[in-house]
Design goal:
The complex is a heterodimer of chains A (308) and B (274). Helices cover 36% and strands 29% of the residues of chain A. Chain A is α/β, with parallel strands linked by helices. In chain A, strands 5-6-7-3-8-9 form a six-stranded mixed β-sheet, with helices on both faces. A four-stranded antiparallel β-sheet of chain A has the order 11-12-10-13, sandwiched between helices. A three-stranded antiparallel β-sheet of chain A has the order 2-1-4, with helices on one face. In chain A, strand 11 and strand 12 form a beta hairpin. Chain B has one domain. Classes of the chains: A alpha/beta (308), B mainly alpha (274). At the A-B interface, helix 2 of A face helix 1, helix 4 and helix 11 of B.
Chain lengths: 308, 274
Amino acid sequence: MTKLIVAENIYKSYGKVKAVNGLSLEVNEGAVMGLIGPNGAGKTTTIKIILGLLRPDKGKVSVFGEDPWDNPKIRELIGVIYEKAYFPSHHKVLDYLRRACRIFGVSESRAREVLELVGLDAYDREIKGLSAGMLQKFAIAHALIHNPKLVIADEPASNLDPEARSNLLDLILKLHKEEDVTFLISSHILPELSRVCDSVAIINEGRVLASGPLTELFERYSAKVIRITTDKPEAFANELRMLSYVEKISIDSRGVSLVAAEGMESNIYEDAPKIAKNINAAILGIELGTASLEQLYYKVVREKEMKK
Amino acid sequence: MERRRGNPFLEILAASIHEDFRFPILEVFAFLYAISTFAFLGLGGGIASMLSPQSGEAYIHQLVSIQMGIPLFIFLILIFKNVVYGFGSEFEKGTIQTLLSYPLKRHMVLTAKLLSALGVSLLMFLGIQFFALFIMAPQTVFANLATVIVSYLASLSYPLFLTAILLIVAMKIRKGGLALVLGIVLYFALSVASGILTALSITTGNPLPLKALSVLNPSLALQYHFNPLGSLVGGEILWNPSFNEVLAYIGGGYCLVIAAFLIAYYYFSRRLNI
């Protein structure tokens, strides 16, 4: 399988702050890869290095087999969506996209097509007059104007309302399925990422902690979630926190979900009834299921911290 | 799909001109240039003939200097607004990232931005200046065309050098407003330095500080070519550069301008992390 993005052991510091610290990453053609990590993990710096906006202090990056720094040819194949949309403010929406069409050598009719695709009809409005959500839609339309083979998106759903977010995810799936577009998406909103991504790279402190296809990662990290339905979720959760093998707990009105350390899942079947007895709670059910992307993320981060 | 490729460089240039000179900036500045040029040209004719009765060259130099005074300041404001503030703000707002997502080399992006910010302003400034000169004093201008050209070259050297330096500063600090303030301070600093160094040269009888400053601002050398610098006592001439020396100062000044722009290009193309 062709690798569209290859980053090998890259480093980038801002003064004393190591933003990227020996990061390696590969994105295969046809993948929808999520780049996940906390604030300050190095996601945006990594994306900027991949886009050729930053030069790494050390290490090598290639995109479509080329060094992205000042290599304009590959930009014909890449669409970019930034977290904050940056465009000259005094142009009209349709006029600016038509100009982008001419720059990339596509028919000017494509400008209307992409605006319809993202659901933005403010054709004659100046860019500075767009709301944050509209501006984000405009940025997405701009990124897709030249039918890119690879779309790199840094928090593309920020500023979008729930309906627009859902539409964006549908659009990503459509482009991936019908036009085989590869995506590298950085996002904090993990449930949404898990809807579209087939692979993820979990990064923290400037390096990749784990990466690969989602199914493989769930298997590798035994990221199983145990769901206990009870009438006293909060009291139950407080007791569960005392157990050494419980790594992550989340509570809702009907019960508790937890991630247990690898190989310790079965212990809960012994401990849960004891806890229920102690706090005088009723257990209405215990189920073992696959973890969410968020739970996988916490498991990977926790495991790496423990190894440290 | 039908592909109609435009020229990415020209498209970015057109977008930059649209942004830099949106209505009514171009119209207002053209009006200011025209009114100040014609007003000072009318006023300058009489003053120049009083100051430089000896030769046509000295007269035309005085005329150009007087005529250029206020328009040159307006020109500076316009290029500072576009190059220093405009380009600095591209970094502040992040629009430079969008420009660098297009299939165009970095140095071409910078050239498009500079042609819009500097080239259009320069064309407008020189166009109105020459037009006014040819209308008001066509015969004198034609007879002394070399002096006219040298006067403009000498006067534009320092503003262009300052623009290149401030372009680098704007890229470095990424704050358009701060770079603009710095530019205005530096411009006035040269006038102050020029006054101090002239006084120093006259009192010490040594024109070396003025000669050094003339590399940065060759219009000083041209000024002392037509009006020699005299000492405080005895009326001794301290400095009266020949025309060839003036040309050498202008050459030196433009070497500095070219070097500063080359550094700006190198920094933007090879070193600048966005």
